[in-house]
Design a protein that fits this description.
The structure holds 2 protein chains of 2 kinds.
Chain A lengths: L1 H10 L3 H5 L10 H31 L6 H37 L1 H9 L4 H42 L13 H18 L27 H25 L5 H18 L1 H14 L5 H12 L1 H35 L6 H39 L1 H10 L3 H39 L2 H4 L14 H28 L2 H5 L1
Helix pairs in contact in A: 3-4, 3-6, 3-7, 3-13, 4-7, 4-12, 4-13, 6-7, 8-9, 8-15, 9-15, 10-11, 10-12, 10-15, 11-15, 12-13, 12-15, 13-17, 15-17
Chain B lengths: L9 E12 L6 E12 L3 E5 L6 H8 L7 E6 L2 E2 L5 H11 E4 L11 H11 L6 H13 L15 H14 L4 E5 L7 H18 L3 E5 L2 H4 L4 E6 L2 E7 L3 H15 L1
Parallel strand pairs in B: 3-8, 3-9, 6-7, 7-8
Antiparallel strand pairs in B: 1-2, 1-4, 4-5, 9-10
The chains are: A mainly alpha, B alpha/beta.
Chain lengths: 487, 254
C-alpha cells in the first residue's frame, strides 16, 4: 500500500519528460554541453583558418620559398592544440552526462521496470550527446568562420596584403565532425552508470552512498603510471642529452608529452589525495568538513573536472615559464649583444601559444561551473535536511563557496606546479647545450623563471572562476526549502 | 483543549492555523483553522490519511514552514513571524528531527551526524550535554558504530543515530515524521520503544506523524487529522481502537 503510493508520487515529476521526448534538452547541463562543443568547434575552425591565412600571406611574399613546410608544421602544431581542447571538452561532457545520469536514476529505473533494456537507455543518452554535439559544432563553426573572416579582413587591411585564401575549405569539416564524434563518445562514456541501474531502484528509498562505489580501475592506473614514469624517464634522458647536444629537445618533448598524458589518464590516482590535502586546510567545522568531503565524494567526476583545469593551467604555465626562463637565460649568457628582436620573438611565440592553450582552460572552467551546479541540484534533499537541522542561509553560501574554492584552488595549484616543471624542462632541453657548444664553459643549468604577469593573470582568473562557479549553485542552494526538499 | 494552562506547560502550541496553497478558484486549504497544543513531556501521535494536512501542521509547529494565518509557539516563544535566520537557529537549538528516510548527512560519520546541531551552532557540547550524548550512544547501542558512515549502517541503525541527534540537544520538541516508515517490524519496535523511553524517562516532548496504528498505539495521545482539521483527539489508544476509528472515518468519507 505505502509502496504503491510512493511509486506514484515519484513518477509524477518525471511524467512530462516522458510525454515530451524533447524536454531533455532543457535539462541543466545540456546547455553546457552545447557550449563546450561550440567552443571546441569554433577554436578548430578558427585555428585552421588562421593557418591557411598565414600560409597564404607567406605564399604571397615573393622571396619566401617554401610555404608548404611552414604550413605543414603549423598544421601539425594546430592539430595538437585542437586535440587538447577537444580532449578537455570530452572530459567535461563525459562528466556532465555522468552527473545527469545520476540525477535520472529513478526515471531510468522506472523505464527499466517497464521493460526497457539498459543498453537501450544508454543508447538514448548517447544519442542525446550526438544531437547536442551536432548543435554545438554547427553553431561554433559558423561563429568561428565569421570571426575568422572578419579578423583576417582587418589583418589584411592593417598589413596591407591581399593573400589569396579560401574561406570555405573541405578540411574545416574535420574539426566539426571530430567535435560531434567526441561529444557522442563522451556521452556514451559518461552514461556507463546506466548499466548499473536496476528496475528495483524505482521503488526503493535506499540511503545515498557517501561516495561513488570504488570501481576497479587497475588496468587504467597501471597504464597511467607506466606512461608517466616512462615519459619522465625519456624526458630525463632528453634533459641529460640536452646538456651537450641540441638533439636533447627532440627526445625531451615526446617524453614530456607521454608523462603529461599519464597525468591526464591517471587523474583518479592523484587528484583525490590532492583534494583531501587541500580540504584539510579548511578547518574542522561541520560546514568546512562537509564542503571538503563533497569534492571527493564522486571521485571520478571531480578528478575529471580537476584534471581538465590542470591541463589548461599547466599548459599555459608551461609556455609562460618556458618563454620567461629562455629570455632570462639568454640575457644571462649574453647580457650585451642579445638583440631585442629575439626577446620579442620569444615573447610573441609565448603569448600566442598561451592564448591557444588558454582555450582548453576556458573549456575546463565551463566544466567546473557546470559540475558544481549539477552537484547542488543532486544534493537537494541533503541541503533540505541540513536546512531543517539548522544550517543557515549564510552557512549554505559559505559551504558552496568553499566547495568552489576547494576544487579551483587544488586544480590551479596542481596546474601551476606541473606547468612550471614542464616549462623549465623545455627551456633546459632547449638551451642547456648552448654554452658548451659555444665554448663558453660547461653545460648550463637553467633557472626556472615564472613571469609575474602570468602569475597575476592566473590568480585573477582563479578568483573569477571561483566566484563565477559558485554564483549559480549558491542561488540554487539557498532557494531549497527544507519542507520541499524533504517531502 | 480549553483547560487553562500557562505557556510554560506547553512544549509547542498552534492556534487557528491555516495554510492555503494557490489562490482564487484553485486555492487548496491544506490546513483550515487548526489548534493543537503539545504538553511538556507528552508523546503525541498525529494520524491521518495522505493529504490530510498532518505533515503541514507538523512543519509549522517545528518552524520549517510559515502558516498563511494563525500563530505558533515553541515553549513560551511565539515563532510566527520570525525571520528565516531566527527560525534556523531555533530549529538548530530547540527542535529535534527524525525523518522517515534520508536522515543523515552521507559524508559525515554517525558521531559527526549526532554532533551536527552543536557544530552548526559553532560550539562544542557542554560537559552535561556530552554526558547526555554518551549515554544516548550507549543506550542506543551505537558505541561500535560511531565512526561509520550512514551507508555502512542498517536502516534501523541510521534511525537510531537520527534519534540520538534529535535528543542530544534536549530540544523543546522532537518532531518525528514517519520514523518507522522504512523499517522492518523489529527495528520499528526498537525505535518506538526508544521514543517512548525518551518521553517517560527524560520528559522529552515528541510529536510523531504516522500512518501506522501500531506505532501510534505507543503514544500518550493520538490526534486524528482529516481534510485540514482535527477530527479527533484521544488519550492513549490500542492499535485495535485506532484501526477501528480509522476504518469508521474511511467509511464516513467514502
Amino acid at each position: 500500500m505505502t509502496v504503491a503510493v510512493r511509486t506514484v508520487a515519484s513518477v509524477a515529476p518525471s511524467r512530462p519528460a516522458v510525454a515530451r521526448p524533447q524536454s531533455w534538452i532543457r535539462e541543466r547541463g545540456m546547455g553546457a554541453t552545447i557550449l563546450v562543443a561550440a567552443i571546441s568547434a569554433a577554436f578548430g575552425v578558427m585555428l585552421l583558418s588562421a593557418i591557411e591565412y598565414v600560409s597564404a600571406v607567406i605564399r604571397a611574399i615573393p622571396e619566401a620559398e617554401d610555404s608548404n613546410t611552414v604550413r605543414t608544421t603549423l598544421t601539425i602544431v594546430g592539430i595538437v592544440f585542437i586535440a587538447i581542447a577537444m580532449y578537455v571538452g570530452g572530459m567535461v561532457t563525459a562528466n556532465t552526462f555522468s552527473t545527469v545520469v545520476a540525477g535520472r536514476v529513478r526515471r531510468i529505473a522506472l523505464l527499466r521496470l517497464l521493460g526497457s533494456s539498459a543498453r537501450r537507455e544508454r543508447t538514448t543518452i548517447a544519442r542525446q550527446g550526438l544531437i547536442l554535439g551536432a548543435i554545438g559544432a554547427v553553431l561554433g563553426s559558423l561563429g568561428g568562420l565569421l570571426v575568422s573572416v572578419l579578423a583576417f579582413r582587418l589583418a589584411s587591411a592593417a598589413w596591407n596584403v591581399d593573400p589569396a585564401w579560401n574561406v570555405l575549405r573541405p578540411d574545416l569539416l574535420a574539426p566539426v565532425l571530430a567535435v560531434i564524434a567526441v561529444t557522442w563518445l563522451a556521452a556514451w562514456t559518461g552514461s556507463r552508470r546506466v548499466i548499473a541501474v536496476t528496475p528495483l531502484q524505482a521503488l526503493s528509498q535506499a540511503a545515498e552512498p557517501s561516495r561513488d562505489a570504488v570501481r576497479s580501475r587497475r588496468g587504467r592506473h597501471v597504464a597511467a603510471l607506466s606512461l608517466f614514469l616512462v615519459g619522465l624517464g625519456i624526458l630525463g634522458l632528453g634533459l641529460l642529452l640536452g646538456l651537450v647536444s641540441p638533439f636533447g629537445l627532440l627526445i625531451a618533448v615526446p617524453g614530456g608529452a607521454l608523462s603529461f598524458g599519464g597525468v591526464a589518464l591517471g587523474s583518479t590516482l592523484f587528484v583525490p589525495p590532492a583534494l583531501r590535502a587541500v580540504g584539510r586546510l579548511f578547518g574542522r567545522s561541520a560546514v568546512a568538513r562537509m564542503a571538503a568531503a563533497n569534492a571527493v565524494r564522486y571521485s571520478e567526476r571531480s578528478s575529471r573536472m580537476v584534471v581538465g583545469v590542470v591541463m589548461g593551467v599547466g599548459l599555459v604555465t608551461l609556455f609562460a615559464v618556458g618563454g620567461q626562463s629562455s629570455v632570462q637565460f639568454l640575457q644571462r649568457v649574453s647580457p650585451d649583444d642579445l638583440p631585442d628582436v629575439v626577446v620579442q620573438a620569444i615573447d610573441i611565440f609565448t603569448a600566442v601559444t598561451m592564448g591557444l592553450v588558454a582555450v582548453s582552460a576556458v573549456i575546463a572552467a565551463v566544466g567546473v561551473v557546470n559540475l558544481l551546479t549539477l552537484g547542488v541540484l543532486q544534493r537537494r534533499r541533503e541541503f533540505g535536511l541540513l536546512r531543517a537541522l539548522g544550517l543557515s542561509q549564510g552557512q549554505v553560501r559559505g559551504m558552496v563557496l568553499l566547495e568552489s574554492v576547494h576544487v579551483v584552488v587544488t586544480a590551479v595549484g596542481l596546474g601551476l606546479l606541473l606547468g612550471t616543471f614542464y616549462g623549465w624542462a623545455g627551456a633546459q632541453a632547449l638551451w642547456g647545450w648552448v654554452p658548451l657548444q659555444a665554448h663558453l664553459g660547461g653545460p648550463a643549468i637553467i633557472v626556472p623563471a615564472i613571469p609575474p604577469v602570468t602569475v597575476a593573470i592566473v590568480i585573477a582568473a582563479t578568483a573569477v572562476l571561483t566566484v563565477v562557479a559558485s554564483v549559480v549553485p549558491t542561488r540554487l542552494a539557498t532557494r531549497i526549502s527544507p519542507v520541499r526538499a524533504l517531502a | 483543549m480549553t483547560t487553562p494552562m500557562t505557556d510554560g506547560d506547553y512544549a509547542a502550541r498552534a492556534e487557528q492555523l491555516t495554510k492555503t496553497y494557490g489562490d482564487g478558484e484553485n486555492a487548496v486549504h491544506a490546513l483550515d483553522g487548526v489548534s493543537l497544543a503539545v504538553r511538556r513531556g507528552e508523546f503525541v501521535a498525529i494520524m491521518g490519511p495522505s493529504g490530510s494536512g498532518k505533515s503541514t501542521l507538523m512543519h509549522m509547529m517545528a518552524g520549517l514552514d510559515a502558516p498563511t494565518s494563525g500563530r505558533v509557539w515553541l515553549g513560551s516563544q511565539q515563532i510566527t513571524g520570525l525571520s528565516d535566520h531566527e527560525l534556523t537557529v531555533l530549529r538548530r537549538r530547540r527542535v529535534g528531527f527524525v525523518f522517515q528516510s534520508f536522515n543523515l548527512v552521507p559524508t559525515l560519520t554517525a558521531r559527526e551526524n549526532i554532533l551536527l546541531p552543536f557544530d552548526l551552532d559553532g560550539r562544542r557540547p557542554s560537559s552535561s550535554e556530552q554526558a547526555r550524548i554518551d549515554h544516548l550512544v550507549h543506550a542506543l547501542g551505537l558505541v561500535e558504530r560511531v565512526h561509520h558512515r550512514p551507508d555502512q549502517l542498517s536502516g534501523g541503525q541510521q534511525q537510531r543515530v537520527a534519534i540520538a541527534r534529535a535528543l542530544a540537544t534536549a530540544p523543546d520538541l522532537v518532531f518525528a515524521d514517519e520514523p518507522t516508515g522504512n523499517l522492518d517490524s523489529r527495528s520499528s519496535r526498537e525505535v518506538l520503544t526508544l521514543l517512548r523511553t525518551a518521553s517517560r524517562e527524560f520528559g522529552q516532548s515528541i510529536a510523531m506523524v504516522t500512518h501506522d496504528p501500531v506505532a501510534a498505539s505507543r503514544a500518550d495521545r493520538v490526534v486524528f487529522v482529516g481534510d485540514g482539521r482535527i477530527v479527533a483527539d484521544k488519550p492513549a489508544q490500542t492499535a485495535e481502537q485506532i484501526s477501528a476509528f480509522m476504518l469508521r472515518a474511511e467509511g464516513v468519507t467514502a
